[in-house]
Design goal:
This protein has about 400 residues and is an alpha+beta fold. Helices cover about 40% and strands about 15% of the residues. It has eleven helices and eleven strands. The strands form three sheets. A six-stranded antiparallel beta sheet has the order 2-1-10-9-8-7, with helices on both faces. Strands 5-4-11 form a three-stranded mixed beta sheet. The longest helix has 26 residues.
Length: about 400
């Protein structure tokens, strides 16, 4: 009995010691936990300062980081329980997907990025764009696919810019933004590539001849969307889904394309205008933004996309990434630092940004040091017009990405 008591006491003491040591180990912060806490403190501080400057700002800031040290997500000012699976509108980050689709077809020998858009698709008798009146845009016979990718084609952007009052055609939307004109009477209107490019052709408007100036054009990417459909024989949405989104494991990303497909998948971040009066604008007709701004995604999906893409681990080979995707236009046009659907952000890496009503985002990846970051806010601060929106992109989001890089790298 005495031996049993001694043995039991020894086990109990040993167990207590073991428990004590285990408990102590569990409470010690790991390197990963410390990084997470530093990231959280960083975004909390940024949002505290920002909301002090703009009282009543309804949105928040979300940040996703993937690096060789691990995967991290933090947010501040968002709804409780927000994770990296929160859906938002990624807007012009879509252009990186469109460029990827074009270069995937080129990689497979199905198109030539330096071909004119009126040239014949390899192995067919069909041209890249229809040779009809809707696609009879200025300089059509000079524009190449690469020009469109690099925003050096001079194609007039009917989504962002009003139709010039100098247009002599007798049209009801002269001097107005075409999209706003149509949506005033038909909010659920299904815009399409032919219609948008057709406005440019009808009005015979252009910024410049190809390769003369760098001018951002959503409509140029609408033409790329049409080319993807004609070369692949699939709808843009289906091609990107089947050939990019699914193979890259982006199962929370989608490309809505009808005028009535207005809602975001659950869970989602509500989008707002801050003028400074607050107005929700989550629901949106994105049919006019197909191929240039219709992506709905999550911080996790978007961060994994840009990381895999720039490392040559997605659907594009590293050779394609380095020798086509990342190549700037020649001459002074290259000073715009816009390559093929992506651009370089100094000290952050390659990527894009996005601006759609209620949502602003930035995705960047630096494969040299293996760090990729996605940041987004779910409010447009229009209290100072474009100046405050630019401040959000270039200060709030870029600073969040920069801080993340300094903390995690």
């Amino acid at each position: 009995m005495k031996k049993f008591f001694v043995l039991f006491s020894t086990l109990l003491i040993g167990g207590a010691l073991l428990f004590s040591c285990t408990k102590k180990t569990l409470t010690e912060p790991t390197a990963e936990t410390l990084l997470q806490e530093r990231l959280q403190s960083s975004v909390d501080l940024m949002m505290t300062k920002y909301k002090a400057k703009y009282p009543g700002y309804p949105g928040g800031l979300a940040l996703k980081v993937i690096s060789k040290k691990g995967s991290y997500f933090v947010s501040s000012g968002m709804e409780a329980g927000t994770t990296d699976q929160i859906h938002f509108r990624a807007a012009s980050n879509t252009k990186a997907f469109t460029a990827t689709a074009i270069l995937l077809l080129a990689q497979e020998g199905k198109l030539n990025v330096d071909a004119k858009i009126i040239d014949t698709i390899p192995g067919t008798k069909m041209t890249y764009v229809p040779l009809n009146l809707q696609y009879n845009i200025p300089y059509r016979d000079q524009i190449t696919i690469r020009d469109l990718l690099q925003h050096s084609a001079g194609v007039y952007d009917v989504t962002n810019d009003s139709i010039p009052v100098t247009v002599t055609a007798n049209l009801p939307y002269i001097g107005q933004n075409y999209l706003q004109f149509i949506e005033e009477t038909d909010p659920d209107h299904n815009f399409n590539f032919d219609e948008l490019v057709g406005v440019v052709a009808t009005c015979q408007i252009s910024y410049a001849a190809p390769r003369v100036k760098h001018k951002y054009s959503n409509t140029g990417y609408s033409i790329l969307g049409k080319i993807i459909e004609r070369v692949s024989g699939m709808g843009y949405n289906q091609f990107v889904t089947d050939r990019i989104i699914k193979p890259m494991g982006l199962d929370q990303s989608s490309m809505p394309y009808t005028g009535t497909d207005r809602l975001l998948p659950m869970p989602f971040a509500k989008g707002y205008f801050y003028q400074p009066a607050v107005k929700e604008c989550t629901s949106s007709n994105v049919s006019a933004n197909i191929a240039e701004g219709n992506l709905v995604t999550t911080p996790d999906d978007l961060c994994r996309f840009i990381r895999k893409l720039m490392r040559g681990e997605g659907v594009l080979s590293l050779n394609t990434v380095n020798n086509i995707l990342k190549v700037y236009p020649s001459g002074t046009l290259g000073e715009g630092k816009y390559a093929c659907g992506i651009f370089y952000v100094p000290n952050l890496g390659w990527g894009h940004n996005g601006a759609h009503e209620g949502y602003l985002s930035r995705m960047v990846s630096d494969p040299d040091v293996d760090i990729s970051v996605v940041a987004f806010t779910n409010t447009w601060n229009t209290s100072g017009g474009m100046a405050t929106i630019t401040e959000q992109l270039n200060t709030l989001l870029d600073e969040a990405c920069m801080n993340a890089r300094l903390i995690v790298q």
